[in-house]
Amino acid sequence: MNTQKTKKPPVRANSGAVDKGKKGAANKAAGNAEKAANNKNTRPDRRNPVGLPAQKEPLSQNRKTALLCAGAFLFTLAVTLTVLALKKVFPFGEKSLFFSDMSVEYLPFFSEFYDKIRSGDALSFSWATALGGNYWGTFAFYAASPLNYLLLLFSRTALPYAFCGMIVFKQALAAASMTLFLSVRRQGKTDIFALFCGVLYAYCGWFTAYYFNTIWLDAFYLLPLLALGIERLADRGCVRLYIPVLMLTVFSNFYFGILCCAFCVIYFFFYLGVSRTGKRRPAKTGEAPSADASADAETDAQTAACPPAGRTPFFRSVPFQRTLLFAGASVFSALMLAFFLVPLFLLLRSNDSLEESFSCASWFRNIPEQVAALFTQHTGSGSGYANYANIYAGILPLCALPQFFLRKRFSLREKLISGAVLLLFVLSFNIPLLDYIWHGFRYPTAIPFRESLFFSFFLLLLAHRGLSQTGRFEMKSCLAAWGAGAAVLACGIVYYIGAKTDGTIGLLAVISTGVLLIGLPLFLKVFSGSPRRAEKALIGVWLALLIAFDAGGSMYAHIGDNLSSDHTRQSADYTAIRALIDRADDTTPFYRSELRSPSGVNNGAYYGFRGVAQASSAEDTRILQLLRLLGNDSNRYNETQYFYQTPLFDAMMGVKYLYEYTSLSEEGSADQLYPRTPPEGYTRIGENERFFSFRFSEALPLGYAVSSDLVNWQPEEMQAPQNQESFFRLAAGADPLLRTCDLSVSGDENGIVVEKKDGHYTFDASNTKGRRLWLDCTATAKQDGALYLCVETVPEIEHTNRLYFKKNGTDNAVELPYYYSAITTLLADAKAGEKYTVYFDTNNAEAGEFNIQFFQVDTAALKEACSTIRSNGTWLLTEAGSSVLKGDITVKGENRLFMTTIPANDGWEIKVDGALLGREQIVEIGGAFIAFPIEAGKHEIEMRFRLPGVFAGGAVSLFSLAAGAVYLFVIRRRKNSNGLNA
What we know:
By secondary structure, the chain is an alpha+beta fold. The chain has 28 helices and 29 strands. The strands form seven sheets. Strands 11, 13, 14, 16, 19 and 21 form a six-stranded antiparallel β-sheet that branches.
């Protein structure tokens, strides 16, 4: 055996103090060795095969990492609570974090999930919104996160408060998760920069702009753990972290989980390229270190134990094997989630909540703003590509990034790959096709560039690399950092002086940049050598104050001063409406209700009744399209609002109870339009300090017999009132139910209005030369009673029109709650001969088409039509659960249809007198409702909903679990017994 003489390290001339320190360290090491030798715990085990003394150092490093993570969590919590206190946000004031979709989507769906879990109800079907539907999509998009079970610890009325607290909790978790990732990937070599970068990650522009999308925040704190799992897979072939974290990420929120899957692919190949695992040859002496010290140590150990005899074939190389393992682990994760994914994919086949079309003809015109967004605390939370990606991640990373790209200790390969990844994200923010791919080959309905979270993650990762490997002081990197800081300062000054953004935002950016520039050279000089404990403490405190100021300033700048107190109002509203529901004492097993209000969706999900209005990314669009054609305001793909519908609609859909605010101030100026007295057919049955409650006597049951002529009912575009009337004409042979008021339409001197024969109007505004064209529409009431308005526009001028209303020429016009393409609403309690005017602008459109109608309802004819339908036969339910309906019906007459207002979701099993109906026997009324032919006589009808795909998906998951268990306990154990690396 060849032996090699070990060279002694060169002795450097130094002071006696240093020699004394070395002797002390040596004596201490000798003492530790003696203690270890006396340690009785020397029995060999699988992790310690030769019976070496137990080591305490790794445990100490784990404690340091745990302290850093706890510090990041508490640091973030302290900064956020300080910001909330300054903004007077709950619990420090009456304001609330509720913003945008938080009130109208997330809180209602969390509340419905709360009710289902507390009552033990199935997660397959829900009657709460859109007349009922498959609940699995709502669960997957909004409520599947395991953290949601913490909400069960709170009372139902406290959910709005707990919901706001969950945002702060998830943000602090994200800081701790990022700190853990940056610490562990350096083999336990903890540093304070991991904490600082973790805190900045928690306050990145993506979070401060989109914190109200609480369903995305699970991916926010799981993303660093996902990256850590990928690194362990690439380094060691270990999938024990990657698989469960990937499954949890997709399960917690399906939509953002898909984006994280794309991130996994990019990060795996990025890490494979920058680490030694990605090299097919052993590392040479003097080669630059890789991105992960743990990867270097393990790769070097394997190379020393088994030196290669030459170049390894590609298909047997470590990179190729790791790639196969990564693909296999990802597929295995998907198969394990088959019970969750298969029913969801079957549901989404009928969902078109995200528009498909996009234009990639040119680059986005926001490049200057995009560059400025990287250097300033300004964030954009609006919709559409006129905005820019929120990629701000603090001042410190921008000044530290040159340390990574200019220092020689990092290999050129790592720098090129890292730069390519950052460039990919920059191009994604400017090329529509790449952004389209990032969003799962869908065009996002709002908030583009959602992948900006991943850009901030990479930015902080590279910044931490530069900060934690300072090494020898280099003037070149110092000057580069100065240049980056100067760019930050310049952008801040330009935005501050030019008033491109809020003055506070620009001022905070300038101040924080100046503080950093003053201390940056001192920081680089001190940490390039071996700083003393006092120096490190001083620099650490200085950086902590800077980070707190930078991170807190970013959040403070984005949280507006006009925050509402929705958490207080919603809790009070829930208590008031539930009190009215409990006092109704209705023995009918099934009926629907709605909140009659100019705003609000998902009312049924929040208040706990069966409703109509809904805004959801997982809804079957067939029912939404039908509701739009019947006059419910809709954005055509994922939202419908109830507003003040007609008695025809309420009778058809079985809306038996209505609730209405008692105070005009609750809903703003538009609320003064609507009469406090109910129209004919509605009876006020209850009242408290917040709401009235009404009962509608003509509401039809869930199922009833109608004429078979109803199969010919085809609702038409821009004919909402006529579509409601034609339903009753075909179903019951009813006389005309509507009385249309005479109407006059006029424009200004530069507009030409042409009336079409079908009642629609077209306009030509090509001569306005940029001016807005106003159209005045005036009608005269024909009789005393409720006056209804229907306004519909073609897509070219939808969404941004503003409708205003005047009565008898009054000067004080009121803006109508009009948002999308159609609205049918109760306008006034009119008197015969009174004139009513609605006027609106054309939103600078040169040409367009619209339909406007003022009409009144013949309530006597409607009552007769409903009586005719009831005489034909109604479904008397004896059981009405979430997914089971049973009852009897006695049908009179021939050629009848059993008509239901149950959406035609896949999964319904229908039995008539015990015989199962085939799919060919079921027809869809209006393309959305379940119906089938039925003979005269008495019949027992049972309908049961079974979640499509749940059994097939469950079988796949169980098979995958069994296969994984076999691999874990058989194959892996066999490898271990042969002495191979497991």
